[in-house]
Amino acid sequence: MHTDSNVTIPSPSPRARKSGTAAAAVAARALTAIAGGYLLALAFTGAAAALLCRVGGLDRADAFVAAGMLAMLAWPLAAIVSYAARSAGRGAAWVFGAALLLGATAWLLNPLPRPV
């Protein structure tokens, strides 16, 4: 095996380094769209069902079915927001922040039952 000490390995070009960060940003946005969309839909279902039970006077099961159908609109909305934001961090902040806000609303409107 012959080794040549004068051989230099070229460093990656700035364009190659930039494409690596672009791939990471796309991966972060995809993770936000998938996981954040799921959490947003789940939190929306809880908040809307609690609101429909309290304000709308619906039965609990009917409220969850109606809220679950409406929540299917929240998931694509989360994907649109995560890709339309200026950065992956802003998209994640919007999606996870909205999920946190809706989750807190669901928790406040529908507290845990008291032990007997």
Task: Describe what this molecule looks like in 3D.
This protein has a domain of 73 residues. It is mainly α. It has four helices and no strands. The mean pLDDT is 86. It is 74% helix and 0% strand. Helix 1 packs antiparallel against helix 3 and helix 1 runs parallel beside helix 4.
Overall strand count: 0
Helix-strand makeup class = mainly alpha
Shape: elongated
What is the share of helical residues? over 70%
Q: If helices are DSSP runs of H or I spanning 4 or more residues, what is the number of helices? A: 4
Largest sheet geometry:
none
Features:
116 residues, mainly alpha, 4 helices, 74% helix
Brief rundown of the structure:
Helices cover 74% and strands 0% of the residues. It has 116 residues and is mainly α. The protein has a domain at 36-108.
SSE arrangement:
Elements: H1 14-54, H2 60-71, H3 74-84, H4 88-109
Helix pairs in contact: 1-2, 1-3, 1-4, 3-4
